[in-house]
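Hi V.,

You were right to ask for the full record rather than a summary. Here it is.
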Amino acid sequence: MNLVEEVDPYNVDTLLTLSQYRAFQSRFPAKATEELDTRIEEIASEIASGLEAGRKHNVYSDKQKAVFYYFNGIKLCKAAPSSRKAQIEPHTAQK
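Predicted structure:
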């Protein structure tokens, strides 16, 4: 007996996901993302220039938290590079 297995050369789930991605891609303008990128970079440089050197405890400002969230959650960077951009201790960010 020969067993014949039908194999679909195209992964239908992947094709549907890609078509949905293309459909929703036009709904979110790229210009707003570019503006957000530049604003977050400005905030990151502002944080880096105004950071106090001798803190005893890790108390982070809202700007630092926002920059970390942006790079970690939206740009999908890992925790260590995101924490360096936000001037957060990498060990704290990885928890």
